[in-house]
Amino acid sequence: MRTAALAAAVVLPLAHAAPAVTTLPALRRRLLPGLHGLGPPDRVALTFDDGPDPESTPHFLDVLAAHRVRATFFVLGVMLRRRPDLGRRLVAAGHEVALHGWAHDNLLLRGPAGTVRDLTRAYDLVVDVTGRPPAFLRPPYGVLTGAALVAARRLRLRPVLWSCWGRDWTTSATGDGVRRRVLAGLRGGGTVLLHDSSCAAAPDAWRAGLAALPGLLAECRHRGWRVGPLGGHGLAAR
């Protein structure tokens, strides 16, 4: 009995933490291309995390509308609860709403029961606000856990991270720097991660991502890549 309890004390935390190894981009690019966000080589998926935020999200929506581009917004439950009208605006503009979690917590620091409860609560809120079930999950910091995978399976969510980012959450981020960093790592079929809110970042860091967006979209067009939401990558929900 004591041996079984000891084994459980070792195995269960390991099972919870083991999926976090997928934060390593080289590993998931080679072994888990779907999790890496790789799709058809003639398109790029554009995604935003951490909103919806009344201070910043409308500016991103204006730029996307001006360029006739649709994207995927991975929303936080705490943000959507404050401004459900912004969630409805995302859908009305033709964008895809996906799940980022309830709060911007590292799920390694959440217990399994709390993780499943929070993700389920966030999922239900997205459905209530938008009228549509989300298809994708991207946990905060890109850290997957065993409990997050259990919740994703129950909710029929496909976990997807990203293939390149702009580090647009830092105090030193600039529009030109974000654009150059994204393009340096971007290939056809890739998934871009930007942030439409600074709720978990340096204050006003979102302005760098916003400034980078027009040039990024122009360069994608120049390279012959169609830009759109993650759903267009053909990564169907589980």
Question: How would you describe the overall organization of this protein?
Answer:
- With 238 residues, the protein is an alpha/beta fold.
- It is 44% helix and 13% strand.
- It contains nine helices and eight strands.
- The strands form two sheets. Strands 1, 2, 3, 6, 7 and 8 form a six-stranded parallel β-sheet that branches. Strands 4-5 form a two-stranded parallel sheet.
- The longest helix has 19 residues, at 112-130.
- Mean pLDDT is 93; it is low at 2-11.
Question: TL;DR?
Answer:
The chain is an alpha/beta fold. It has helices at residues 2-17, 25-31, 57-66, 77-82, 84-92, 112-130, 146-155, 175-185, 206-222, and strands spanning 43-49, 72-76, 96-101, 136-137, 158-159, 164-165, 191-195, 226-228.
Strand content: 5-15%
Distance between the termini: 37 Å
Biggest β-sheet, characterized?
6 strands, parallel
Radius of gyration: 18 Å
Care to count the β-strands? 8
* Backbone shape: globular
User: Structural class per helix/strand content?
Assistant: alpha/beta
Overall average pLDDT: 93
* Continuous helix count: 9
Order of helices and strands: HHEHEHHEHEHEEHEHE
- In the predicted model, the low-confidence regions spanning at least 5 consecutive residues are 2-11
**In which range does the helix fraction lie?**
40-55%
